[in-house]
Amino acid sequence: MERQSIATFVADFLALGRETFFIQRRGYRTQRWSYRDVADLAFRFARELEARGVAKGDRVMIWGENCAEWVAAFFGCVLRGAIVVPLDDAAAADFASRVHKQVNPRLLVCSPSHATQIANVPLLLLDELREKLTTHSTEPFEASATDRADPLEIIFTSGTTAAPKGLVLSHANALANIAPLEKEIIKYQKYERWAHPLRFLHLLPLSHVFGQFLGIFLSPLIGATVIFQSSLGPSEVIDIARRERVSVLVAVPRILQSLKEKIERDLEGHGRLKQFHERLRNSEGEHFLHRWWRFRQIHRQFGWKFWAFISGGASLDRETEIFWGRLGFAVIQGYGLTETTSLVSLNHPFHLGKGSIGKVLPGREVKLANDGEILVRGEAVASGYWQDSGLRPVTGEEGWFRTGDIGALDADGNLYFKGRKKDVLVTPAGMNIYPEDLEPALRRQPEVRDCVVVGLDRGGNAEPCAVLLLRDPNADVESIVRNANSTLAEYQHVHQWVCWEESDFPRTSTGKPRLGIIQDAARQKLQAAPISIPGASPLSDLITRISGRPVASLPAGTHLEDDLHLSSLERVELLSALEDRYQTDLSESSYSSVRTVGDLEQMLAGNASRRIEYHYPRWALTWPLRWLRSLAHYTLVRPAIFLLGWPRIEGRENLHGLHGPVLVVCNHIDDVDVGFVQTTLPARFRHRLATATGGEALQILRTSGPDRGFFARGYDRLKWILGVALLNLFPLPREAAFRKSFSYAGECVDRGYSILVFPEGHHTTDGELRPFRAGIGLLATRLGIPVVPMRIDGLFEIKQAGKKFAPPKMIRVRIGRPVSFDRQTEPQAIAADLQKRVAALG
């Protein structure tokens, strides 16, 4: 039966029930949302809109990161008949304000970081949505009467800063894309159960129609799980693909390119890159299974369930497509625009047209104009542009929409993308940049007489290049461009420029600049610029590879953003590349404060030690080990603690009524502190407790050096096994690699374990508290669990006296009141507060 409204998907959610819909990270925690959970929150949100008087046709803005709450708010609006206005999480506040003025929304649903950026509009926070709406019923909400032609959402394209351009998409537009795929999926449904559930690692923003299509609409058709990931670093992407048993990665071409570069860097570091490229060339034409076996080591990195990439938002370069294809992965491309509700053509996952952007989907017509421009007609073409609460048509003569893209069709009906005709520039990150937005910002600079922004090729996509006519030839061009960039969104920043040396641009008879001639001249001038010599400067070579722009030299004062023009995505890639190149673990917080090359070199010098691969044995969290630890506690640890010094325990009443995981912080006197804490805690916390300990010392036990004899190494390994198995120890390095340790702590909490941390990092040497490290503040906010302060007194005096045993009750362990912290509190402030609380227990 044909769907009449997007609201029918909510019934599918109910049918899928407890199947996992979304997996997402909040801080260091992993949240899992079932289809039923999303439906329940959508019903509650619809009732909240009803209570606020939001009616059919009213607008609701959703501005935030990808999350299950975003999807629930979207469908809540659909049920109520409200029109969704999604904004990219990275959108500038100024752009969002202009959108707000255009659509006059009744409600803003956003991330906490955007809460104060638009005034005079009621708002709800995405990460608090579940808690705020608990008063509403989860009973199914009767959807408003909706016609297929009714507006579903208004999507503002990622360009125009002066006058944001909103496309109105109707229910019919979205359903026209879903219907042909739903019919095709039914044919393969019987095979899906062998790989159920398919898991999509989703790296596209839900504010874009292609991101919605794969993250919201396609998944329920096959009962798939969608994993949202905020970090775009290639190492993290590969790690989560393996850990969550991902089947398909959904991303823009730039992510596929950075993953390719990551694999090549790793091989280069082991001296196997030349051999790998030879094997890659030899794999051409081989059967899929043969290629899979030949490159099984790379498949193991991604996990054995991983098999495909879906690339969208921009054009994928042929070299990257061939690379992944020869490794034995499927690379699925499609073609479409926001005006066509995402899809015009799509590659079939099991019948790929190499190099093509797929075959035209049923329900739409495609033809090529005399100049090769792709023209599209059909129900999927957008209803129109939002204009003064009305619509301005998108299509032209006879209902054809002119895409502005040049294409070709082969005899088999495969569509090929050949380039762009219109002025919009699409970056490898899938962002649309309009020259008419950048040129006014440049012309506002007093030194600029005139300018033209042209697109220069970058991997099949484009990057803006400013061609400037200056009033003074000696003006500081870098300063001019930097000032212009400060008025633009980050993705619009101009990274390349040239000065036009003649008195004026070449122009047509009507006075318009001849863009083709100017573009060719700019390209030739930039190609003549000096480039870096591979090997002469590893840092400049890395930046050249990542940014795609030649870097000749890197003085210490070179600014990463203003001078090298690194985008936020390129900074993430640089962090991963530096860790691979120098085999070290870099602190994200330290890296975020890096501004210049000198800062970067100083940070690298501070991390000169070789990377240590710390081990996080997840087998220690399984139920047989829990039982073993419980047995060991009552037969070994507890008797030993009472023998060493029967402790006086105070403050247990502070834990009354507290259940579930907690973060325990305690002063650090000796290695036996763990036993005293375990003995003090009630059984409900003790039996599920993971303890963070010195990562370096723990790793030495696991991998003793060759200076230790055979039996000594075996004894060290035995101590490591016993420590992990009986005390559930995991490494918390003092100098680096905090991210993995904190992430593992979050995984423990997800499994119901409490965490014990000694925030001083070392034993006390004088009996006084050492300063608490800021990392405990990060854990407290990103784990989102109560913090329980504890303090051990009397043990230091016994240790100083050189005694092995203490009189009963001389050692005292006191438990403080649990405390919770707001997510926005600074880590340093939390660390200082916890130190005061522990000190006050003395």
Helices and strands in order:
Layout: H1 8-16, E1 20-26, E2 29-34, H2 35-51, E3 59-63, H3 68-80, E4 83-87, H4 93-103, E5 107-110, E6 123-125, H5 129-132, E7 151-156, E8 166-170, H6 171-192, E9 199-202, H7 209-222, E10 225-228, H8 234-243, E11 248-251, H9 253-269, H10 273-282, H11 288-294, H12 296-302, E12 308-311, H13 318-326, E13 330-335, E14 345-346, E15 359-360, E16 364-368, E17 373-378, E18 384-387, E19 390-392, E20 401-409, E21 415-420, E22 425-426, E23 432-433, H14 435-443, E24 448-458, E25 461-470, H15 477-485, E26 496-499, H16 515-527, H17 538-547, H18 568-582, H19 588-592, H20 597-606, H21 623-645, E27 648-650, E28 663-666, H22 673-680, H23 683-686, E29 689-694, H24 695-702, H25 710-727, E30 729-732, H26 738-750, E31 754-757, H27 775-783, E32 787-793, H28 795-800, E33 812-815, H29 827-840
Helix pairs in contact: 1-2, 2-3, 6-7, 8-9, 9-18, 17-18, 21-22, 24-25, 26-27, 27-29
- Helix tally equals 29
Q: How far apart are the first and last residues' alpha carbons, in Å?
A: 71 Å
Which CATH architecture of the domain at 618-840 would you pick?
Answer: 3-Layer(aba) Sandwich
**What is the approximate shape?**
globular
On the 0-100 scale, what is the average pLDDT? 85
